[in-house]
Write a structure and sequence with these properties.
Layout lengths: L1 H18 L5 E2 L3 H14 L8 E9 L8 H11 L3 E6 L5 E6 L5 E13 L5 E13 L2 E8 L3 H21 L4
Keywords: Signal
Protein name: SnoaL-like domain-containing protein
InterPro entries: NTF2-like_dom_sf
Length: 173
Amino acid sequence: MKKIILLCTVAALIISGCQNAPVRYTQDSPEIDTVKNLIANYNSKLFDTAMYADTSKTYYNTNKNPMSPSEAMDYHRNTDINYSNRGFAKDNQEYEMVVTDDGETWVNCWLQWQGTLAANDQAVEIPVHLTYQFIDGKIVREYGYWDPSEIMLTLQKLEAEANMGEEETEPME
């Protein structure tokens, strides 16, 4: 009888222990809602830093030279001059929140960025991966990865063409 009671107690502890485990992966969380709000703000050109911790660091296509939240917003404002319109597509957005083995909370998202270059009305679509680390409901790290080659090459080509046009119109001495 003691063995049966002991086995039932151990089984009950194991079952209750498994039910109270923290969520390590989800596609629905307050942190994901924060990132969705941040994406909506980007699309609306609302450059709000309230979601970021004051000490947050943002890295776009690099692991060096982080930007503060206000510098990241300035980055977006400055790049906006290249586009007549831009934003993330509303379809096929994927979000997940994970808690790492070290207890860090991260939200990952995969999005399709779309823009139209102001200089020549060329439409551009770029897949983008963004990942955000959260502490106490605030973003403390942001990493963004995408391939800007098409945009950079087009802008360089347009600049070279403009420079060639200027050389042709300069009077000869």
